[in-house]
Amino acid sequence: MAKRSPFKLKIKKGDKVRVIAGDYIGTEGEVLQVIPGKNRAVVENVNIAKKHAKPTNESAGGIQEISNPIHISNLMLIDPKSGEATRVGRRMEDDKLVRFAKTTGETIK
């Protein structure tokens, strides 16, 4: 089992992100899964690999395309207000810690 990262991740499942480094630079997609122990996230249509699967009762098998994890440092959250990539901060609102976009100050869900 991977050890847990001591840092709070600023990207969550369901966020819209843009890839800022690597082979898929500039690609946007939704975060499908976050792996905090390895500081990685699975983003739809990013870091695609082909997987060969045998046929089973549930699936026909064949060659499937899957999204592999990408490091969190290569991702940047997309601001819901402006649609541009932004850094993320945290602040207290109503005794609750919420995320906000650094460019516009907009609270992120």
What structural category characterises the helix and strand content?
mainly beta
Count every helix, treating DSSP H or I runs of 4 or more residues as helices.
0
Helix content: under 10%
Largest beta-sheet details: 6 strands, antiparallel
CATH class of one domain: Mainly Beta
Q: What is the strand tally?
A: 11
What percent strand? over 45%
Mean pLDDT across all residues, rounded? 92
Instruction: State the end-to-end CA separation.
Output: 31 Å
What is the third-level CATH name, the topology of one domain?
SH3 type barrels
Determine Rg (CA atoms, Å).
Answer: 17 Å
H/E topology pattern: EEEEEEEEEEE
Within the largest sheet, what's the order of strands? 6-3-2-1-7-8
Shape: elongated
Spans of at least 5 consecutive residues whose pLDDT stays below 50 are none
Identify the CATH architecture of one domain: Roll
